[in-house]
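Hi there,

I know you've been waiting on this one. I reran it after we fixed the sequence typo, so this is the corrected version. Both the input and the resulting structure follow.
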Amino acid sequence: MNETNHRPVAIVTGGSRGIGRAICLELAAGGYHPVVNYRSDRAGAEETLAAIKAQGGDGELYACDVRDREGAEAMVADIAGRHGAIEVLVNNAGIIADGLFMMMSPDKWHSVIDTSLGGFYNVTRPVLESMVRRKRGAIVSISSASSLIANRGQANYSAAKAGLNAASRSLAAEVARLGIRVNVVAPGLIDTEMIGDIPRDHIRNLIPMRRVGTPQEVARVVSFLCSEASSYVTGQVISVNGGMF
């Protein structure tokens, strides 16, 4: 156990950029020690950690592909062994591989499902072991508005994110009596690389608030769900979407 670190530990998968980076920064500002998980973008992860330290916080980097079950288990065991406990898990890692379903390759289907939904299983299950022993903890998974409304060309992404919603609700019911809360945040159109090619005029016409959201606006909701301020909130899917539906 790392005796020099008295901040509660929060693992954030896919923390090297976008919403994941914003979540790491928001949790660090709230007193957490974020573990910035990344698969291959070490430079981006280092930028996240530098930003955390620039605002007076601290954290660490951890390279692991959440699709790798054994690797994910080893990551969680190492973090729990060094820090003694894992207080928060944010399942943010995800990818897109859009295409019409009839022409979607098996690789496109499985890569998206395995990252979002398989990654949820691979990381959450071992983290739960740490949380159950202490009878406390918060798990938040990042879904998408695509899990709640039809979005052509995203059958794989919608399936993966809808699976996150359902799995999280079921898990919340299983562990609520143990003091562990499980929730989902489903962002709408957020200003990240994922919507970089969509014309902003088209986006504004879709959103009653007439603008895209920011990663920070998503991160604040995640931070709330990780905090004691949401102590009676579990099994919920909260959409951050500017009034799209």
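Quick highlight: The first strand starts at residue 9 and ends at 12.

Best,
R. S.
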